[in-house]
Every structure is written in structure tokens, then in C-alpha cells.
Amino acid sequence: MQTLDLGAFTDLGVYTPDEPAAAAEFYRRWGFVVLRDLIPADLLERIETECVAAQASVLDGTADARYGSTKYLVDDRLPAGDDEGKVEKFVNYVEHVEELAPGVEEALALPALQALVADLLGEGFWRTRNGVVYQDARPGRESGYSRIGWHADWQAVPHLDIWPGTAFTIHVDGTSPANGFLRVVPGSHLWATPSPFENVNGAVVPEGAPPARGYTDTPPPFPMPLGFEKVRGEIPVYAERGDVILHDAFLWHSAARATDDATVRRHVRGGWQGGDPGLRDTETGFVKNAAR
């Protein structure tokens, strides 16, 4: 009788800073990688403290409106008849959080992380004007964000040649079924995924968007779901506190809703681009195509 070595799956895609070649190889093959033991514990604690303080300042109105967010949220956060004032009692997003939390920039400048991204995107990689976001996903009724449907990040800016790119997520909290987790379709970054001309939010795709993007001309074997459906070949990607996940801008992914209403899932996220550096200071906009 054959036995399955579960140990081979326990840390799928997890690499430490002293394994850069293996991390890059895994990323190129599957479209994502988890970096563990990259951020020192004291730096992570500072990031958490600074981001929580930034969130509080947005909530109490002492922060500039620049740091608040409306573009990422759903429009109907509460069931009909509920007190609309509840929406104002919680802040899911802090935009441009790197300006309020210096520890974030310190983490993103870590040599091992910079070297890996340079390997993946080229030495001239850059960030857009959209900046970095602190995201606090909660399943409670006061929360405007608890999950997100299937999408690829490039679909939010399909009309500009800023791709390829990679997203980074610094996990303040570990993830699990209890508080939600990342769902990915490994290898889907190699498909030519269509622009989101059809989406559940009625979002308009700007002129100039190509029919599809990806690392090959191979079409997906099945359409990308418009919602949260199960996808053939998908896997969960769990993170420990302090892990950094990189995932390709062409990778199909979504985020599962927490099953425990008492939990939180906090992280810092943003991205680097490897496309035309002349677009670095361009206002990229945001096509909110993914279900929420």
C-alpha cells in the first residue's frame, strides 16, 4: 500500500532568504512564492504598531483624506434596513500607508527581497503612484471587505503597458480557514487571460486594453469565474505571521472569507512593475472588476 508524504505539501512554495534561486524557480513555474524569516520580529512589530495607528487616525478623521479608501470597497456593505452609520465605524483600508508607517518601507527595502524581485522583473522594477495599502479584512457586518473573487492583478490596469508585475503581501497575521486565506491556480500566470470586459461590478475597461495578457499565447483551459466558485486545480496558500507572499500579476487568485467572525486578517500589500518605466508617474486608475 502506498503512503502519501504529507510533509512534501506542508510548506509548499515556502523559502527562506538564503534560498533565492529556488524561490525564483518556484515562482516562475507556479506564479507565487512564500518568503519566511525575511522580516525581523522587531521590524514586524513596528509595522503592526504603525499600521494600527494609521488605521485609527483614518477612522477618527485626524489623517488626511488621501489615506482613506473608497475605491476598493463594495457599495452595499450592509443589508437593507441596517443602520448606515455602522459603515463609518470601521476602516478596512489605509492607502499610501508607507507614508504613515516607515517600517513598511524599511521592510520593502530589505536586500534579500529587493534582489529576488530584481531577478524576477529586472533591475529597473518600480512601484506605481497607487502606493502601498494596509488591509484589515474582517467578516463582521460593520466590515466593507471580507473576501474577493477570482481575478488577476493586471486586470485592474489592463490598458497600460506596466506589466509584468508582482504583488507583495506582508502578513501581520497568519492565515487559516478561520480568518481567510489566499486561493490560487498554480501556473495560471502562463495563460493568456482575457481583459475583464465581463465582470460582476459593471466596471468599464479603458480604451486600449488588449484582448488578453499573460506570459504565453495559450488561452485558459476554462473561463475565469466571475465570483467565488471552486476552480479546477486551485490550492490554498497559507501564511504565518511575518511571511511575505509574492504572486505574479497574471496569476489567477482570490481570497476566501473567514469562517470565524471573531478573527482578523491584516496585511500590507502593493506591487512592483517591470513594464515601461516611463509610466511610473502615470495615474493608473483602478478597474474594480473582482467580486466582493
TrEMBL record:
Q: Which SUPFAM superfamilies match?
A: Clavaminate synthase-like (SSF51197)
Chain residue ranges for the region called Disordered: 273-292
Superkingdom, natural source: Bacteria
Q: Name one Pfam family in it.
A: PhyH
Cross-referenced InterPro entries: Phytyl_CoA_dOase-like (IPR008775)
Q: What is this protein called?
A: Phytanoyl-CoA dioxygenase
| Species of origin | Pseudonocardia yuanmonensis
